[in-house]
Each structure stands twice: as structure tokens, then as C-alpha cells.
Amino acid sequence: IQLVTALVVSAEAWDQISPENQKIVRDLAVENGRFASQLTIDLGEEALADVAASGVVISDVDLGPFKEAVAGVYGLLDLDAEAAIVNRVLGR
Fold first, then answer.
1. Which of 9, 31, 50, 90 has the most Cβ atoms closer than 10 angstroms to its Cβ?
2. In whole angstroms, what is the distance from residue 29 CA to residue 32 CA?
């Protein structure tokens, strides 16, 4: 699971914050975003373990063919710029 979290502030409000406090907000947003993402991953793993413990068969799937099949979708929807932003945020 990859979770992108966002903190939204208007430019007008942001410009009223000192550069030092802007850095504090940015640093805390990154830290808390990582915490929230890890919490989501941990809870997902816990839920998966609970489901498996109840007798449900969990199957791992090779995502390669799916990724190849949908690789051109961003281009078809004219969303290449948006895809680049998402990939940059995800460190890809």
C-alpha cells in the first residue's frame, strides 16, 4: 500500500508564515506523512493476518503483466505530468 498524504494551505496563508516556521511545518508534514503511511501498512498487514487466520486463502499475484497492460493509460488520459509528480513523491 502506498499512501500519499497532503497538507493544503493557501498561498496567502503560507506567505504569512516565517521561513523558519514554514520549514518546521514542512518537516513535520513529512515526518507525520511517513508515520501515517507506516501505520496504514501495519494495519493492512494485521488485517491480512486476521483474514488468513480465519481460513481465507491469500494469493500473491504477479503485478508485472498488469503494470505492462496499463502502462499507456496515463498517456491516453493526457496525465503524464500528473504521473510524473506521483512517481516523484513515491521516490520512483
1. 9
2. 5
Q: Cβ distance 38 to 3 under 8 Å?
A: no
* Helix (H/G/I), strand (E/B), else coil: 22: helix
Residue 1 is placed in which grid cell? 500500500
pTM (predicted TM-score): 0.58
Residues 1, 56, 41: CA angle, nearest 5 degrees: 20
How far apart are the C-alpha atoms of 68 and 9, rounded to whole Å? 37
Task: Confirm if 43 and 51 have CB atoms less than 8 A apart.
Answer: no
Hey, where are the domains in the chain?
Answer: 1-59, 61-92
- Rounded Cα–Cα distance for residues 9 and 15 (Å): 10
Q: From CA 36, how far away is CA 39, in angstroms rounded?
A: 5
| pLDDT per position as a tens digit, 4-22 | 667 789 999 999 999 999 9
